[in-house]
Amino acid sequence: MDHHQLDIDWTSCRAHGLCAELLPDHITLDEWGYPLLDGSPIPPRTTKRARRAASDCPVLALKLGPTAAPLQGRGERRAQPPRTRTQQPT
To answer: Is there a smaller number of Cβ atoms within 10 Å at the N or the C end of the chain?
Structure first.
């Protein structure tokens, strides 16, 4: 089974704090009541509670998605920084 990752839509979050009550092992609240994610992947045994926290968010600001697999191996391209207007394509 794959791990999942939590993400917060900061433009939607209104600091209700329900997510931290439902998933206290991964989410705490800052001094203003906004969620702080611990950044760790959500293991399969916790996925059900994480889905509930995301679906019960009053403004649906909490999202649960798959964890991105890191690129490994030789010959894979690394991400390039965005070009600025002064740089010419190579």
So the answer is: C
Statement: 4-66 belongs to CATH 3.10.620.30: no
**Tens digits of pLDDT across the chain (90 residues):** 589 999 999 999 999 999 999 999 999 999 999 999 999 999 999 999 999 999 999 999 999 999 876 545 554 555 555 554 545 555
* C-beta neighbour count of 22 within 10 angstroms: 18
User: Is the distance from CB of 5 to CB of 42 less than 8 angstroms?
Assistant: yes
Output the pTM of the full model.
0.72
What letter does residue 45 receive in the DSSP assignment?
A: G
